[in-house]
Specification:
By secondary structure, the protein is α+β, with helices and mostly antiparallel strands. It has a domain at 29-186: OB fold (Dihydrolipoamide Acetyltransferase, E2P) (Beta Barrel). 34% of the residues lie in helices and 24% in strands. The chain is built from five helices and ten strands. Strands 1-2-3-6-5 form a five-stranded mixed beta barrel. The chain has a two-stranded antiparallel sheet with strand order 4-8. The protein has a two-stranded antiparallel ribbon with strand order 9-10. The protein is globular and about 45 Å long.
């Protein structure tokens, strides 16, 4: 009888361990590890920066952070497989992916032009730099940067998933970003605007989000990008 109970207990423990491994693999693990909050961070301009990954100074230290839950288009053709994947996702061409990627990079640079807050658990995010990169949530004066990028069609809801400190689980934030992405697609903002030959944002109502608006030359290349408050 005791032996049978011990076997059941051992099997239960194995099942729980397997479930935890599965959650880690899918990025849905919501265990509340200690978060590090870095206040008054500053953006450091670097050629390797893009819309979702950038250099940051916090005090006397420099870091590279990669946003959770958002994947901005590539800014060059160094990763053709990723460019092709993003082109298929947004239903645009590879050159257009690069254009939108550059716009996302500029958007992020503008949003981080004033001091901002970084929340990280120091989970490593692979990158091309020799300097270690970490996943993070970034909060600007206008709110969460991942949300801003997705809502403006400058990133897709994609990437490693984690629950922000104030949320019970990652699914809540994922569903919010899915809604923002659907709105951006419906309004044809950013990358979604390329599908109809335009990247102009039709601001239909007031919101706390910035709108991405581009003017085109006759060659159809992007001429100038502005960040407009809707």
């Amino acid at each position: 009888m005791i032996s049978r109970y011990s076997n059941r207990l051992r099997l239960a423990r194995i099942a729980l361990f397997g479930a935890a491994v599965l959650l880690c693999a899918t990025g849905y693990l919501d265990a509340r590890d200690d978060w590090t909050v870095l206040e008054n961070c500053r953006f450091i301009s670097n050629p390797a920066d893009d819309g979702d990954s950038f250099h940051v100074s916090a005090g006397a230290k420099e870091y590279i952070f990669r946003l959770y839950l958002a994947d901005a288009p590539e800014t060059d053709e160094m990763n053709p497989v990723r460019v092709a994947e993003q082109a298929k996702y947004f239903a645009i061409s590879a050159p257009q992916v690069i254009e939108v990627g550059q716009a996302a990079k500029e958007f992020t640079r503008e949003k981080l032009s004033q001091p901002f807050t970084v929340l990280t658990r120091w989970k490593g995010a692979m990158g091309r730099s020799k300097m270690e990169r970490f996943y993070a949530f970034v909060r600007t004066k206008d709110g969460d940067l991942s949300e801003q990028l997705v809502r403006n069609g400058l990133a897709r809801n994609y990437g490693f998933r984690a629950a922000p400190p104030e949320s019970k689980n990652a699914r809540v934030e994922v569903e919010k970003l899915q809604q923002f992405e659907a709105q951006a697609k419906q309004e044809k903002i950013g990358a979604w605007g390329h599908q109809c030959g335009s990247t102009e944002c039709a601001c239909t109502k007031h919101s706390r989000f910035y709108c991405f608006h581009c003017r085109r030359k006759a060659s159809t290349r992007l001429n100038a990008c502005n960040l407009l408050v809707c």
